[in-house]
Design goal:
Blueprint lengths: L3 E9 L3 E4 H5 L6 H8 L3 E4 L6 H16 L8 E5 L10 H9 L5 E5 L5 H14 L6 E8 L9 H4 L4 E10 L4 E9 L7 E2 L11 H5 L6 E2 L1 H23 L8 E4 L4 H11 L5 E2 L3 H4 L4 H15 L6 E8 L3 E8 L1
Parallel strand pairs: 4-5, 4-6, 11-12, 11-13
Antiparallel strand pairs: 1-7, 2-3, 6-7, 8-14, 9-10, 13-14
Bound molecules: acetyl coenzyme *A.
Length: 325
Amino acid sequence: MKKVGILGVGKYLPKKILTNADLEKMVDTSDEWITTRTGIKERHLVAPDEATSDLAVKAARQALEHAQLKPEDLDLIIIATITPDVPFPATACFVQNKLGAKNAICFDISAACAGFIYALGIAKQFIASGTCRNALVVGAEVLSSITDWKDRSTCVLFGDGAGAAVLGEVEKGGILSSYLGCEGQYTNLLYMPAGGSRMPASQKTIDERQHFIKMAGNEVFKIAVMSMVEAAQTALKQAGLKCADINWIIPHQANLRIIDAVAKRLGFVNAKIYLNIEKYGNMSSASTATAMVEAAQEGGIKKGDIVLLVAFGAGLVRGATIIQW
Ligand code: ACO
């Protein structure tokens, strides 16, 4: 099997910023509540003419430039998203067309906040087996399109954005392990009820606000911590590494209290934790993606560093991957 690593990274955040002060004017909330309960200060939101593929393409162009590859060099595009441009075809098809990546296999992955880690794990298999040479993986979300702006328990949490990575064969390091899991008994804790085959769109589903994210936040919180700890421990075991070997932790950015609890339980000593929750909120699959991109671009991940990505999300899915940069 070939070694597979990251050749280039890129990100895009839409221009509009919604602050906690702005939210105070929309629902019964306060900057103090949002900051202390979640760690979020502001989030980016798309313009009316921007969809998920538009964000993904901008992040992808940056990643391709960084990798010094052309769109035609891609033979696989995976978009991790729960907010596709349309239910079908896959958002990856729109991205392929806009990039001009005419040689790429295209599909989307629906694994919510663990989507980017799922997509990295899948792309790795395609390249390691020799089926593909270069893959584009993007975590891209327009969560504002499925956020109920009248529900204070969820609308303060989410934002829009995209993070991309180009993967290919490397001589040393690369993806050392990839653990993906799911606890399907918890699907009812976090989901969007309508718009699928179970409850097709109708006037009734619209009137009942069933096309928005529904979340039992407290329940999810309790499971999230152990889920991320177990995922990280499994990925470490698979890679034959210990906590002390990790230089960077890139956790899913859902809640600062979850991240703190996970770091404490794992007992990392040398690792730096990269955070961007304060400025972007929870962007589902785009959270780990943009955090990894920023840690590489600005935060100082150096060649040879060992990086742990770990996430959980609706499903409830979980995933952890260890990458030697
Ligand atoms: N502003 C002010 N008060 C609020 C707000 C708000 N925005 N939202 C809720 N409250 C109130 C509640 O009504 C409640 O009031 P009460 O005690 O009078 O009933 C009180 O605050 C406490 O509510 P909790 O829900 O218990 O607050 P908690 O501390 O659990 O924080 C939160 C809520 C932030 C949602 C937290 O539970 C959380 O982060 N959960 C995990 C979310 C997550 O990680 N989701 C997974 C990823 S998302 C994806 O996959 C798409």
